[in-house]
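Sample intake sheet
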Amino acid sequence: MLTIREGLALPLDEIEWQAIRSQGAGGQNVNKVASAVHLRFDIHASSLPEPVKLKLLQMKDKRLTRGGVIVIKAQQHRRQEQNREDALRRLAELLRDALHEPARRRPTRPSRGSVSRRLDSKSRHSRLKTSRGKIDFDG
């Protein structure tokens, strides 16, 4: 089980793995060893509750396909097992981020004192700028 948060876990048999060859330089071994992994998680076929599925499907993330499958490629480590753990950690992080509810903003108003200070400052600045104008000697 992959624990996402308190009371929400994901069975590991719902995650599909595919071992692939890692990209980049690697010497003689690079073309023989499949140390990178693709993790595929189908949201529609998962055992997650419906509200959670809907939140995940509405998420704007490049790792989410149009078919509702999350694809994570892990190739940071040299061992396949470490890459699998990294992919699982990133999936749990993605699911936690999608389920995070931002705190509701409570609208506030500026205090009467701060409003009067701001207006006083504006009028002082205005008087200063008008005093810099041209002087009319004909008046």
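Comment: The two ends are 89 Å apart (CA to CA). The chain has a mean pLDDT of 82.
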